[in-house]
Amino acid sequence: MKINEARIRARLEAITNLAVTEEGGMMRLALTDADKAARDLLKGWMKEAGMDVKGGDLGTMLGILPGSDQDALPIGIGSHMDTQPNGGKYDGLFGVMAGLEAVCTLADNGIITKSPLTVINWTNEEGARFVPPMLASGTVAGNFEVEWVYNRKDKDGLTYVDELKRIGYMGSMSNRFIKAKAYIEPHIEQGPVLDLEGYQVGIVTGALGITGLDVTIKGQANHAGTTPMGNRKDALVTAAEAMLELRKKTIEYGDPAVITMGIISASPASKNIIPGEVYFSIDMRHDNDTALTALEQDAIKIIKNICAQNGMDSLIERYWRADPVHFDERTVTAIETAVNRLNLNAKKITSGAGHDAVFISSIIPTGMLFVPSIKGMSHCPQEETGWEDIVTGVEVLAETIVELDK
Amino acid sequence: MKINEARIRARLEAITNLAVTEEGGMMRLALTDADKAARDLLKGWMKEAGMDVKGGDLGTMLGILPGSDQDALPIGIGSHMDTQPNGGKYDGLFGVMAGLEAVCTLADNGIITKSPLTVINWTNEEGARFVPPMLASGTVAGNFEVEWVYNRKDKDGLTYVDELKRIGYMGSMSNRFIKAKAYIEPHIEQGPVLDLEGYQVGIVTGALGITGLDVTIKGQANHAGTTPMGNRKDALVTAAEAMLELRKKTIEYGDPAVITMGIISASPASKNIIPGEVYFSIDMRHDNDTALTALEQDAIKIIKNICAQNGMDSLIERYWRADPVHFDERTVTAIETAVNRLNLNAKKITSGAGHDAVFISSIIPTGMLFVPSIKGMSHCPQEETGWEDIVTGVEVLAETIVELDK
């Protein structure tokens, strides 16, 4: 099906021009004025496409185009419009706009599906303003309580519910997207694999499981000049040893195992005091549940052993655990069929990132399709996807909807 | 000479009870109300000892007891009364109070020296409130300009000069301690050597030189889940490699070479983003100028090489350089003679820390004596020196004054 390139381009640009940082990044945190402005535009385009626009109790927007079969369950397509601070252009936004564009394309081609088509904009996927991420889809999937979500506060102490009401997008619990034939989330890869290996599309078979650990290593703070090297209990040097061993062990597990130490701090944080305590975070991911558990156990063993060798204590606390997810086979096959019909160069891939689709997959048959991220850049102003790949992604989506509607 | 233990103990306790943290640490930052309270007590005791109390233009306090020889140059004894935040009891304070006590002991024993005796309390030795450390002694020694010092600001934006005036200790430039027969600074070791090796006193022959470097390693921030291990430019892992190599190289240099990475931070500091940039500080010390320079060059080479191997850039900036200092031979010998006369178990030692004496040694024949720090604890509430060692330190000082006065 021919995509109306000018239309989707103009719409993407209308939103990516809304709240831009000096460095060219997006600044559309959930439930801010910039988010509201993007929502208002989306609402207008949904209505223009003949959709009935509804809102969920977590602020999720749903644009519903009726199908020809009154009894058919809906097919949902969507993602999120909120961004990281100074985030990328198409992270989330691509999925929502691809959904809208696919629905418009089907209409342009005179195709009326049996299933109603629901285009969805989930609230607070990034978790950048209200922690943790994916609050709306997570609640719909039964992982969070709505009252708990409502009371989440941003760094200024503003609550989710007050901000949701303030921007005028409080909806109703009865509009939650909980029963459907399928849910498809198109997304940028956010990694380098498709771009580096020359694929046009990624057929996502599932998502990596995640284990998050908070690690504190306890040595002994002391004077930088008066403590001989042999008398030190330098928590930072021990942390460095541990981090290198953790990396080595993770590489031994092979792809898709990954490990990231994203935050580190030394205390008392003085240039002339030996660090007595060091904190660092660990984020470990794997597509295999057993392997992920083994990797976590290995990591704890490595830290404990290195601390013991250096006469130090450690405190290791798990702050997060998400099991690996395997998407619905029939839905994944529908995407594959669409890709083959369009004769595209596609790769089956596991998502390394969390997505609304990961939560939704526990209640609805779910699939995802990826478009390439140039050099794998993500959560930064340099995030980019080629224009041809965006159009290709919408084509695959439109074909997938036809396939799922069969 | 017999020391009046009850007197020095009561005076030390009067000051260490002034501003105590919950953890039992000292909170007597330079030119605060707590500093003023300590100064007021010291001023009273100086007057009680028959001293003329004067003030320098940097806030330094001088208690002067006249000698019998009108033409004799003074002998100075002192240290500082300011502390680190949550600092130790005797760091600095011991030197000032030992000076006062030695002067009182000589008087108790009917000894009148030819030289006037000047007990000194230098301002802002720690550099904890106004950066850098040793602002008063550094200015007296010609390393800083007084106007520049006056305009140093604390973290709340308050200036040195305003705070000095506020607590009522602004003095005159004519009172600077710049010409003397000798300056002796008694101090706690702040390191473990005397305590571990069972010495009662350290005869300090000089001070380690210091090179300080600010290091930034520039990798590439990216998504923690979607970037395979082989496609990462993780600045924190590279920093960890560099830190371990730096430690290894420093140990190769042997004692007294030391290296400390006291501060570290990763950017963007998110648990699920690979660190794109890491900053850490390096503090390197050695008693040999050539070796210190070689160690610095080796350190820079190590960082550059490891960054190059990992395809990263680095930025290395020197924030500090202090040459190694060798104290005056005659003054050091006077301390040694006093130690031998008292039949004490003493060790010649190089100071790893900076002290007012290090600056003053460039204009006045200078020496230092150390008392043991239990387990080498310093700049923390656990800092401790045994009561016997404190008394012994005062005895050595009193004998040293007699020796220097010959």
Describe the structure.
2 copies of one chain form a homodimer. By secondary structure, the first copy, chain A, is α+β, with helices and mostly antiparallel strands. Chain A has helices at residues 5-16, 33-48, 93-108, 135-140, 146-150, 160-166, 193-197, 235-253, 289-309, 329-341, 356-360, 387-405; strands at residues 52-55, 61-65, 75-80, 117-122, 182-188, 201-207, 209-218, 222-223, 258-260, 264-267, 273-274, 277-286, 313-322, 325-326, 346-351, 366-371. In chain A, the strands form 3 sheets. In chain A, strands 1, 2, 3, 4, 5, 6, 14, 15 and 16 form a 9-stranded mixed β-sheet that branches. In chain A, strand 3, helix 3 and strand 4 (117-122) form a beta-alpha-beta unit. In chain A, helix 1 runs antiparallel to helix 3, helix 3 (93-108) packs across helix 12 (387-405) and helix 8 (235-253) packs antiparallel against helix 9. The longest helix of chain A is centred in the last third of the chain and has 21 residues, at 289-309. Chain A is elongated, with a radius of gyration of 23 Å. The interface between A and B is large, with 64 and 64 residues.
